[in-house]
Amino acid sequence: MTAELLGQAEWIRVEATLGLSSSSQSDRGQFFTPDLAAKLIADLPATPSGAVIRVLDPGAGSGMLTAALVERAVREHWSSQIDVEAIEIDATLIPALRRTAEAAEAFARQNQVDVRVHVREADLIQLWSGIDAELTNDFDLVIMNPPYRKLAASSWQRMALGVLGWESPNLYAAFVALGVECLRDGGQLVAITPRSFANGPYFGQFRKKLLDEMAFDRLHTFESRSTVFSDTGVLQENIVFSATKNGKRNHVLITSSQGHRDHQVARTVDYAELVFPTDPEQFIRITTDGHDDDAVQFVSGMPSLLSTLGLSVSTGRVVDFRCRANLVPKPSDDSVPLVYPGNLRQGTIEWPKAIGKDQGFQLREESDHKALMPSGTYVVVKRFSSKEERRRIVAAVWNPEKNGNSAVAFENHLNVFHHDGHGLDPELAWGLCLWLNTSVIDRCFRTFSGHTQVNATDLRSMRYPDEVMLRALARGADHLPDQDDLDLLLEQIMWESVVA
Ligand SMILES: C[S@@+](CC[C@H](N)C(=O)[O-])C[C@H]1O[C@@H](n2cnc3c(N)ncnc32)[C@H](O)[C@@H]1O
Question: Which atom of ligand 1 is nearest to the CA of 63?
């Protein structure tokens, strides 16, 4: 019976999607939620209480999330009156939204549930921040699949949010911020968003404010890079979360499934495992099974920070399109090696190499020296892995002896570990490289990062073995072993350090 409303809403969604122009789809982030994903989202928050439940559906599109929520209210026989405010900027979508709203109201009426949906054609951010601001902050529930679009620092949307103390580099973050602002204390926000706000500096301020104001109750992750919006061509890692404004931070229920149609695995973790209380970056760590827990515990139990090892990590200094005049295809007398991610292979750096990229950096002016690192041993980690790659963290060592002991230029798609701007001791460097290539590091990294990008901040935020252990690791292998052998080597070194 309840499938009836979702079925109708799904037809309207598909029709509305077909009517979109590709420019408005990308400008306005119009990727509508399929029925089963909408049901998963609407089922996430706790049942709201009160005689009247005020719901906000910002960026309502064709109304899929409202339909899924009403379907839940009917299925669970909610006795409250449900008042939904559905806001959509695109006039061409309003007829579809109205049809879904009417279907939802009629369906609820037939089942003796009191639902009123108020459709509003408006820009959410203007509605909040305009002279005659019309949005209130007494909503019980905000349910959203916000649009995704980068916001320039100078954009009016970003400034409007900045006034409220929210730094929102993306429209999705701005929507979440306004969702939080519209809630009463104890109200809930449920959203499907990219996972990118969970770590990294880009969303740092946004994340801290969100974690300050909201307590996460439930999180759902999809293991396969998203099948959720597969019929709309969106491929990014999404999470669904529900959180309570100024709620209690005791436990969080984490569920995961392959895609939105698949079986869910559930586990409860302490809040302090989701966000380490001592973590200055406030990364949101999503451990989906005991193996993830073990990896996080193992890595966070390590004795060193990069700084205590005397090391730093920064991004490669050469942004190639900004210094084309300095790039030469092949090594020459007046150039130094230029290293790209494509030069990395099995823990070492093959240079020069035919990778379709210039292999030399020519010194033309005095100031060009700034782009170089002095001759030395460096550990580098790719900043981006391809979606197909098995590992997110791929590390290798630059060996100066194999390359004429010259200074070296690292391209900007690499993170470079150094010792105060200089090279590392070669044994320490090799140990660090092996450590970074272990499975436990990759697994730990994936608990706080949903994207293929590895930021220097991510590498700085992790803990490391001490120098003795890193050197022992280095002495255990003179080349990068197969993954299983490397993991066994690490186990052995750890065991030896315990019994020593
Ligand atoms: C990702 S879609 C989701 C639609 C719907 N909630 C769903 O789940 O199917 C985001 C919607 O937000 C709308 N939108 C984009 N910018 C907006 C704004 N500033 N104010 C209101 N709606 C906006 C888009 O037109 C689009 O319909």
Answer: 5
